[in-house]
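Run Importin-11-like through structure prediction, thanks.
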Amino acid sequence: ELTNQMFSFLLELWRSETEAFLATGAGGQSLEIVVPCLERSHLALKILRKLIIHGFKKPEESEDAVLFMKSIFDRIKVMLTFRKQHESNEHVKTISEKYAVLLTKVLRDVLENFPFSYLQFIKPSLDLTAYFVFTPAGDGLIFERFTVQCLNLIKAILLCPEYKPCKVIEDTKDPRTLEAFRIKLEFFTNSVLAGMCHKLISHYFLLRQDDLEVWDSDPEGFCMEVEGGESWKYSLRPCTETLFVSLFHEYRSALIPVLMEMVRSSHSPVDPSDYHGILQKDAVYNAVGLAAFELFDDIDFDQWFTSSLINELKVKDSNYRIIRRRVIWLIGQWTSVKFSPEHRPTLYEACIHLLAAEEDFVVRLSAAMTLKHSVDEFEFDPEQFMPYLPTIFGLLFNLLKEAHECDTKMQLGNSYSEDAEPNSTSTSSTSLSSAVAVDTSDTQVAPDDGCVCPDVLHVMSFMIEVVGVGIQPHAAPLAQYLPSLWEESADHNMLRCAILTTLVHMVTGLMRKSEGLHEFLINIVRISTDVTEDCHVYLLEDGLLLWLTTLENTANPHDALLQLFDNMLPLLELSSENLRLCLQITTAYTVLCPQQFLS
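Sure, done. The structure for Importin-11-like is below.
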């Protein structure tokens, strides 16, 4: 009811203010006159966006709502031109960019909330976005945030479940679904798809100069930008990659010939001094990795690996680091798709070379993640891997110590976001090295600046889990390092989760030898399961699992382990969410030391 009373008035206000700033701007009027009109128009648009989403049950039944939606397409073109005309004025340019982005957000919101109301706008949306993003018409007019919104709008139309008919078309009951399917079919012709595929790979996938500058100045930041979870919502390259994957999944038969031709043209070696050629090859290899599952029957990856890819990893020119990083990433994408077990030793050897200290940090991290993919595989053979374990584990440990970003340390652990909770514990690292039978006298552990990287830690944790007791001769350096890492991660609870997970696998692998770690283990279990500590919200489940694993691998219970049970009663009163783990821990105490525990 409120919307019915307000919408027409606000729509007219938006129209008049928009026409006012366009007219004054075109007439060469002072910006002091133009800017207030522009700002009022922008504010009116914000309100209209909220009203059309929250004020209508079926926007298509409102004449004003439909009129508003239709006018958006013209306004987008006008605003891009207006921005271009006034780009010398930073304030006007900024407002104009926000305005253009807001217009695309209105389209996206209506599509997501009222997909069938959006039927009549599917074709105009695809026409407009393709015109600006995939043709030369957009050169000089579009900007990154606008491009991201356009690409995400295309993807939203592609993936909208209401627009997808049944596999047997005749079984689709809703005619609106069939209409949407017909519109998409008419738009996404083979020629249009080929053009979009070429543009995505040869233009949007290319590393830019600012990407390479970040690579050089902040390699860990570069890795985090590449691997970010939902960065496709606001960052250009992840956005283009997710659209490419969606297009390839929907129109596989039309796009495979296009991509295969690009692969053939990029197959020959590139001169390390040919920077553009290197970037083009990187983009094509990126596409092949993203579409790996779709290309299963079209690429003989084993032959490609042995005849070409493995040789490209050996080119040590500085410029070729881009290809080394992309090739090892590409292999990681294909290990679970089509990669023969007989070639895995060659891959392990290649990863050892790429993890060396003199190699580029980004390449090293990519090699670590590929190792994780190769180990996390149904056909993984632990016996085949064991000869390489000592060297690989040592190189990963060195990489872990060098990492400064919390997210990086988690990936060689686990990639998580950061949360600040000031809790820490102290312990002596002297007893930790004695927990395993290996000489660690040459191991020097120095505190890192910043927090340790869960990416690397996750790789090591996963490796420990897979090889089990085989980790015993090689665990001492990591066991000695984790206490200082725990101290440094006081403000990073998600990193501490990764440390807890790693310790669970380490205790399982060390078995009774883990008793030498008890001082450290008991301290962090106490913090993780103490309901008076704010960090227990993040650490509780992993802390309980470590507690149980520690008990299961203990032969000689002691007072500190028994006193830890003081944390249990508040946990039982807290909720039933972790009741099973709590009861398992209680049972473990009863079995391990019944008389001491019950007394």
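Confidence is low (pLDDT under 50) at residues 414-452.
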